[in-house]
Amino acid sequence: DKTNERSLSPIPTGELEDDVVMATVVLSGDDVERLRERVKSESPDQSLHLSTFVIAYAYTWSCLVKARGGNAKRSVSFLFLGDFRERLDPPLPATYSGNCMFPAGSYNRKAVDFAEERGFVTAVEILSDLVKGLSSRKIETIVKEFADAFESLHGTSQFGTVAGSTRLGVYQTDFGWGKPVKTDVVSIGEGGGISMAERRDESGGVEMGMCFNKG
């Protein structure tokens, strides 16, 4: 709302359609390692940042673009939230205890970049650059890039976001009645996003939550 840019009002939420379902797709530690080795063998860049987050997000995103189908030249965009608490210049004071998050993403790409056979590896290469760029690029540059792209995002046919991380330790949380049996990020249902968490009973595995229509 340009008439009230500084507002604490929550973002309006829409009604979910009746045919929307939530599902969890699991990647085992072995799955992640096989995908990591595939990237190493197919990408000419041997300095890629091949974290579990990058591998899992890239694989899921490329699968979603393929599943959507449609015009190969349609515009697609995807992003994630970066933690800038230790990346600001001048730095935040040591006593700072809040968040400092901002999106880093790849905007207005062509669907064919991710839907073709090499789509997964392409997504890894892009995400790797974005993750490494959190430390090497000034936040002002990333903010401007997002602001410039934001105006044109209404024309994108598919928009990917991810909530969570494999490092949050959600399954280690215990408020006195034991660790969670299952966790879901219900807010992803509002925008067709995905969520990510570590597997409950396996080190190195990933749970990817998705919310889409049944079709």
UniProtKB/TrEMBL annotation:
<protein>
    <submittedName>
        <fullName>Phenolic glucoside malonyltransferase 2</fullName>
    </submittedName>
</protein>
<keyword id="KW-0012">Acyltransferase</keyword>
<dbReference type="Pfam" id="PF02458">
    <property type="entry name" value="Transferase"/>
</dbReference>
<dbReference type="InterPro" id="IPR051504">
    <property type="entry name" value="Plant_metabolite_acyltrans"/>
</dbReference>
<dbReference type="GO" id="GO:0016747">
    <property type="term" value="F:acyltransferase activity, transferring groups other than amino-acyl groups"/>
</dbReference>
<keyword id="KW-0808">Transferase</keyword>
<dbReference type="InterPro" id="IPR023213">
    <property type="entry name" value="CAT-like_dom_sf"/>
</dbReference>
